[in-house]
Please model this.
Amino acid sequence: MTLQPGPTNSLTDVAGLKVGHSTRRDPGWLTGTTVILAPHGGAVCGVDVRGGGPGTRETDLLDPRNLVDRVNAVMLGGGSALGLAAADGIVQSLLADGHGWQIGGPGQVVPIVPGAILFDLGRGGAFHHHPTRKDGKVAYASASDGPVEQGVVGAATGSSSGGFKGGIGSASVVLPSGTTVAAIVAVNSVGSPVDPRTGQLYAVRHGLDGEFDHIGMPSAAEVAAAQAYAEAAAARGMRPAQATTIGLIATDATLTKAQCQKVAGMGHDGMARAINPVHTLYDGDTLFTMATGARPEPDLTELFLLMMAAGDCVTRAIAHGLLAAESVDETESGGVAIRSWRDAFPSANR
Model:
């Protein structure tokens, strides 16, 4: 079975979804916020948290046993627990536009915005710089149904993955039935996305036909240099940074909260194919799943294919995020310098 991506190979191929970013890269800053807006009326949502150090908001609400069955948006952000403040800006913006869980008469709504954060504090130079309510409002105002901007933007602005620069990545696929499945991931992991023997990204071997044909094998010299750098870092006693990879899977199928939760769990299998190790004590790896319900409820065979596609989209999204990321150097502000995979292995870029 040969599958193809949607028109933009990104999350917004699921009709009705919008994605917006707030990116902070001024001196002393290296952080940001990403918002995924559901269609008017909301979308069914589930979550699966696997990492040992999560930072989340409103995830208990997504338990299938609980009442509220639709969300209006999902927030992904930097700033560790401090960055959860950005969700309030999204909530206030939704409230102003009249979107939320209906409580009473016109305008009497409560916007439902689950969220998750990753650790990037201090990478821009100032430890206390983190996304705030204002960043949530900026992300909301910028939300678009166009192709998702990827790389060093939004929640992944200050991210790092196994010593390489992380990024926001996205991918989609259209199933034979016409159902679309897609993912967006902010890659910020203790584990490495790179095979130390070859320098190749683990994820690219899982691409659709032709998707990563422009990525070759790094030269032996570049692989040796990368290995030497890793050994030198270990000798200096460098500890793994606080991390966390977060993201969202979406589909236009009709799913229950319990099914969304299961899809999110399958998405973690896709994360494990792209990063080694995952779900460590330093990571708070979290994936949401959003179902818009624009297409019918899948039968068991279709649901199986949808869940498989969810994991594959997460893997491919991680590859796109790392390939879109550029190196950063915030050392003049007291922050960090992080090489991108492209700069570490230039010979692999055809």
In short: The mean pLDDT is 95. Residues 125 and 332 are 8 Å apart (CA to CA).
